[in-house]
Amino acid sequence: MLKVGFLEDEPVILAALGVKISQTPFEKGSLDELYQECRINREESKDLVNKIMGKHRHLILADFLPYAITLEDISRLAAIYFWRNVSANNLVFGAGIEASFRVIRPNRYNQTVSDLGKRAFEIYEKAINLGVPEQDARYMLPEGTLTRMIFSASPRYLVKLADSLEGAPLPELKEIGKEIKMIVKEKFSLEVPKESFPSEWKFWSHHRPKEEIEEGISLDYRGEIHSVSLNTRVKGSLAMYAQLVRQRQILCDIEPLEEIAKKGRFVIPSSFPEELKKDYKEIARQAKISQTELIEKQDPNFVYFLLLGQEAGSVIYGKGSPVIETSRARSEGVAQWEIRNKVGIPITKELAKYQELRKEIGPRCWREGNCIEPETFKTKKSICKAFNLTRGRWQGTLEELLEVLREPYQIFEI
Fold first, then answer.
1. Residues above pLDDT 90, as percent of the chain
2. In CATH terms, is domain 216-413 a member of 3.30.1360?
3. Which residue of 25, 181, 199, 243 has the lowest C-beta tally within 10 Å?
4. Chain-centre distance of CA 148, in angstroms?
C-alpha cells in the first residue's frame, strides 16, 4: 500500500538513505528500516556518500536538504510521471533517488495488474535465471510494478509538483499530491499559490490529429556552450525514459499514454534468447488486451498495464550545458544501452560537427584519454565494451568509439 512520509535529518544522512534505496533489495528491509540503519551508522553513512561523490561523481547527493519526502510502494508509472516534472525547463528543482531496477529485483506489483503481474514476474525470474541482466529483464514488467523513492526540494517546488499530481487523472497520483500538500502545510505553515507547468504528460489523446514522430535532431549552436539549443525527436521504451527523466536538466515530452497503448510496439533487448522473446510477446499480448479494455471504459488504470519495454515517441528539449552533460553521461559505456543508442550517441554525433566542442563531449575515455570505469554493483565486472578493449585509454576517433558503444536491438508490434 502506498505510504507517503516525511523525514528530517542531516542532508548527508538523507543522501545516504537515497543510496540505500537505490541499491538495497526490497526484501532486505523497508524504507523506514533503511533509514534507521543510516541514522545508527552515521559516520559510515557520511563516508559512503562522500566516497560515491568523489569516485563516481554522483553529485546529486550534495543537493539534498535537511528534510525529504519518502514514497514507499509507489508504482513505477507514478515514479516516472513524478520525475518527468522535475526539470529546469519546468522550473522545478530538487534531488531524489529511486530504487534501481538495473541492479535490484522488484518483488511486488499493484493489485490492479494482479494476473498480468503474476505472469510477468514469473517470466522475469525465468529471464534472470537464463542470465539476462536485470536492466533488460525489467522490459517485460508492467508499469504497475511497485518501487520506492526519496525526494528533497523546497516547499515551493514540492507544492508545484503536488498541484500537478492532483490534476492528473490517476487516483494514485492525486493521493500523492494531496499528501505532499498536507505535509508542506503542516511542517512549514505555508499555503503556496498554484503554479502551472509549461507542459505535462497526457493520459488521453482526446481525438487530436495523430502525429507520427520521426526521429531526428535540431541543434542550434552560436559559439558558446551556453548557447547550445537542442530539440531531439526519439522513439524508445518507457524503461529508457525512466532513466532519462531523472537527469532533471532536460525536458522529455512523450506522446499521450493512450496512443502508446494503441500502437502496441515493444523494444526487445539483444540479451533475450529466442525462448524468452516468445514469453515476452505473450506478456505483451495480455498487456495490450487489458490496456484496450480499460481505454474503452475511459479508465486511467490502463497505464499500469503498459510494459516498461513498450515504445513511446517523444521530443526532448535541452539548453546550454545540460546538453553537453547529456552527451557525456548518456554515451558512456556504463549508461543504459538504449539511452546510448537513442540519446547519448546521436546527440554526441551532432555536437561533434563543431570542432571546438569535440573534447567537451562524449565518453570520458575520449575526453580525458583515461577512464576508470565504475564496476557494476552486482558482478563487480566492467560492462563497457570500449573499456574492455583498451582499459579506458581510447586511442581511436570519437566516431569509432561511438560505433563500438552501439547495441543492437529489435522491435515487435502487437
1. 81
2. yes
3. 25
4. 13
Comparing 3-188 with 216-413, is the CATH topology the same?
yes
- CA 16/CA 22 separation, integer angstroms: 10
**Nearest residue to 241 via CA among 337, 143, 307, 339:** 339
The pLDDT tens digits for 213-271 are 678 999 999 999 999 999 999 999 999 999 889 888 889 999 999 999 999 999 999 99
What is the distance, to the nearest Å, from the Cα of residue 188 to the centroid of all Cα atoms in its chain?
Answer: 30
The pTM score is 0.94
Q: What is the pLDDT of residues 112-161, one digit of tens each?
A: 999 999 999 999 999 999 999 999 999 999 999 999 999 999 999 999 99
Q: Where are the domains of the chain?
A: 3-188, 216-413
* E strand or H helix at 238: helix 238-244
Q: Which three cell numbers mark 47?
A: 563516508
E strands of 138-293, at which residues? Answer: 146-152, 216-220, 229-237, 251-254, 265-269
Provide the CA 314 distance to its chain's centre, in angstroms: 14
Q: Provide the 10 A C-beta neighbour count for residue 258.
A: 19
Cβ(352)–Cβ(400) below 8 Å: no
Instruction: Report the greatest alpha carbon distance in the chain.
Output: 59
